[in-house]
Amino acid sequence: xxxKIQLPITxxxxxxxxxxxxxxxxxxxxxARDAAHKRLCELLSAGKPLPFDVKDATIYYVGPTxxxxxxxxxxAGPTTSYRMDAYSPAMIAAGETGMIGKGKRxxxxxxxxxxxxxxxxxxxxxxGALLSSCIKTAEIVCYEDLGAEAVRRLEVENLPVVCxxxxxxxxxxxxxxxxxxxxx
Amino acid sequence: MREIxxxxxxxxxxxxAVEANxxxxxxxxxxxxxxxxxxxxxxxxxxxDKIIENYGIAEANTVPICQDTGVxxxxxxxxxxxxxxxxxxxxxxxxxxxxxxxxxxxxxVVKDPLRRRNTGDNTPxxxxxxxxxxxxxxxxxxxxxxxxENMSRLAMxxxxxxxxGVKAFILKTVEEAGPNPCPPVIVGxxxxxxxxxxxxxxxxxxxxxxxERNADPYYADLEAELxxxxxxxxxxxxxxxxxxxxLAVNIEWMPTHIAGLxxxxxxxxxxxxxxxxxx
Lengths: 184, 279
What we know:
Largest sheet of chain B: 4 strands, mixed
Number of strands of chain A: 7
Number of strands of chain B: 10
Strand content of chain B: 15-25%
Number of helices of chain B: 8
Strand content of chain A: 25-35%
Oligomer: heterodimer
Helix content of chain B: 25-40%
Order of helices and strands of chain A: EHEHEHEHEHEEH
Shape of chain B: globular
């Protein structure tokens, strides 16, 4: 059974989402991946404001393909998250409560998630054509020069994700594999 | 001597780049669908269903299966009796430029690995050429995503490590990659040669049809054994647990030095793309 979540995710809501829970996200999310995170964190360390409100924001690690005529956005599946590990603790401290990507996270990221109250979701990697149908609007917020890596504001409807790591540090990549192996 | 105009390469590469990115090869589809039938873990079944639904949507609408439309690897097997009329390198890059621009594919290449400015048109291609007998030109376009490329590894093992050392290294590479390369994966392995040749063989192994086993029964058995061992790891589709961690293990090998045992593992995701044309 999927849990419907209306964005934004507050820190209180973040603490109620549990590892292994399938969720459908609706509302506003922002996209950012490697190059955008680098710039955002440079602003944070300089004490400057970010180009969008990061408080209670959910960030999707994605660099979509260009939209074909008539499309809102091209294929838009998650990229591998560990490349954002260097930046995520600062983003979480600044207010980010949700991250969407795929793959493992570092101990530092998990520690920040526990300290502040944030969740890490995975979307299905390599299912970009399917996931793009949940994106209803897309507009560039900043860093247009980065092309696919620009920060975009997306309105999503029932975006299917799974909570992999929750705010207590439980991790589906560990528990899911163990549970399966225990059935053998 | 047969003349082939360079602009024919351009047109062919542009077309293959779009087709490769939007239509998953039949052998890969069959492996995924077979894996779905044999997958006992419910979460994994659900993910494989979504993966199947996704490539169906991509093919029906001519949209990329995955947003990482990759660096564009181009393999040319050039008959030694062929003469290319025009600039080969420029023709290949123009094909990539056209395919990625007109086909609405993502431009994912930076000009310089350290200064990292996007080239804006996905050029240059990663170009591999091989001279073969005959007067034909075979072109394979293989977009390669970097989620899986980043999880690839190379080891210069000792001869005394033997086949057990090779197996252990391959298993360790896949297990450590875990959920990162979008499992179920396809594992390309290169054994032998030199440091660079092993890596090239591993990449080449990913071009081989999944319906085809290694022609040498010794290596065919090794492929089957490794696939079974990888699928006993329990990583599963997307790393959430399950049987289907890999769809295939393809090994290519070549002679090497008496002092060495190079082994390279090039991981590809379930969106393993390549498309070939023969001119």
